[in-house]
């Protein structure tokens, strides 16, 4: 369900240009630097995250610090990780006013995150996907994120929906994901090429265990290469790569006909977990066989939601 933006009588705009000029900041499209201009939206993020004085909040890409300042007023501690050194002065001035704010200048894609229990971020669009994947490896209670609308729809999609993908499955295994509402690109300065959306991720215990995280990702990648085909079709293709008919028939029986007859994009996350476990138990790590198929079909370059 998509929740509409609550309309308010007064809109409070953030004056971005004077801040950029004062500190000599030039937004870098390479880093996906687009700053929210609607203070009501920023306050809504903080409210949706239910930030309290006991919370340690992680923010990725604080930029000019508008959201950072709002978080610091509510949280016990805010840890903001910023890659671009041109924000050093503006964030240093903010830190003087907010003693509970810690600024870390590092690349959030590769840096080790300190302990936190909530995440509130307007994610730089260029790194939103790897950051979300990375967050799946950390324990937290709740994340409120702004990222590209299309990416958010893929994350929140359910089995059988048009945007359902391997990303949907991986995130659903560890969180309850909801697209709260879309955000017009006119709410940013400079305006990005696409609209954004507000995403809520609530951490849950892993829905199921897998024998190998890497192998699970490969099973999903291979399966979604057959997105609109049946699981049976995907499995049968493996017979061309050193898996006998009798071995595959046994694996099919173990997986269950109710699953193997489904189109891939109708398979639920727990069913993908079952497929992964049985393939691992029956054949071991068969990633190389998946890649033989990619090579045969010239799919190496298709690293999109289709794979």
Structural summary, described in words:
There is one protein chain. This protein has 307 residues and is an alpha/beta fold. The chain has two domains: 16-203, Vaccinia Virus protein VP39 (Rossmann fold), CATH 3.40.50; 213-296, Helicase, Ruva Protein, domain 3 (Orthogonal Bundle). Helix content is 38%, strand content 16%. It is built from 13 helices and nine strands. It has helices at residues 16-23, 39-48, 66-72, 88-97, 128-135, 149-156, 166-172, 213-223, 231-237, 245-255, 257-260, 269-283, 287-296; strands at 35-36, 56-60, 77-82, 101-105, 118-122, 142-148, 175-183, 188-189, 196-203. The chain has a seven-stranded mixed β-sheet. The radius of gyration is 22 Å and the shape is elongated. Mean pLDDT is 92; it is low at 1-11 and 302-307.
Share of β-strand residues: 15-25%
Count the strands?
9
Distance between the termini: 26 Å
In the CATH classification, which architecture of the largest domain applies? 3-Layer(aba) Sandwich
Question: What is the helix content?
Answer: 25-40%
Task: Summarize the structure in short.
The protein has 307 residues and is of the alpha/beta class. The protein has helices at 16-23, 39-48, 66-72, 88-97, 128-135, 149-156, 166-172, 213-223, 231-237, 245-255, 257-260, 269-283, 287-296; strands spanning 35-36, 56-60, 77-82, 101-105, 118-122, 142-148, 175-183, 188-189, 196-203. The longest helix has 15 residues, at 269-283.
List the SSEs and their pairings.
Blueprint: H1 16-23, E1 35-36, H2 39-48, E2 56-60, H3 66-72, E3 77-82, H4 88-97, E4 101-105, E5 118-122, H5 128-135, E6 142-148, H6 149-156, H7 166-172, E7 175-183, E8 188-189, E9 196-203, H8 213-223, H9 231-237, H10 245-255, H11 257-260, H12 269-283, H13 287-296
Parallel strand pairs: 2-3, 2-5, 3-4, 5-6
Antiparallel strand pairs: 1-8, 6-9, 7-9
């Amino acid at each position: 369900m998509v929740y509409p933006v609550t309309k308010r009588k007064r809109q409070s705009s953030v004056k971005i240009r004077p801040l950029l000029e004062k500190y000599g900041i030039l937004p870098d499209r390479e880093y996906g630097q687009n700053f929210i201009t609607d203070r009501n939206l920023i306050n809504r993020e903080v409210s949706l995250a239910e930030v309290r004085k006991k919370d340690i909040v992680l923010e990725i890409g604080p930029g000019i610090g508008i959201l950072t300042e709002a978080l610091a007023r509510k949280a016990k501690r805010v840890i903001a990780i910023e890659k671009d050194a041109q924000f050093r002065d503006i964030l240093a001035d903010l830190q003087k006013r907010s003693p509970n704010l810690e600024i870390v200048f590092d690349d959030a894609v590769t840096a080790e995150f300190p302990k936190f229990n909530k995440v509130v971020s307007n994610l730089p669009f260029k790194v939103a996907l790897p950051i979300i994947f990375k967050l799946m490896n950390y324990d937290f209670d709740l994340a409120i994120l702004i990222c590209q609308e299309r990416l958010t729809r893929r994350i929140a999609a359910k089995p059988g929906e048009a945007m359902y993908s391997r990303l949907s499955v991986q995130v659903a295994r560890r969180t309850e994901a909801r697209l709260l509402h879309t955000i017009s690109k006119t709410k940013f300065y400079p305006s990005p090429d696409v609209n954004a959306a507000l995403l809520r991720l609530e951490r849950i215990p892993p829905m199921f265990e897998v024998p190998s995280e890497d192998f699970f990702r490969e099973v999903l990648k291979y399966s979604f290469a057959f997105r609109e085909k049946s699981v049976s079709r995907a499995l049968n293709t493996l017979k061309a790569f050193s898996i006998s008919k009798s071995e595959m028939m046994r694996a099919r029986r173990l997986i269950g006909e109710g699953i193997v007859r489904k189109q891939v994009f109708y398979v639920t996350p727990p069913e993908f977990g079952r497929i992964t476990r049985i393939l691992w138990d029956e054949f071991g790590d068969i990633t190389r066989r998946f890649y033989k198929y990619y090579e045969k079909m010239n799919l190496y370059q298709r690293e999109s939601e289709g794979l």
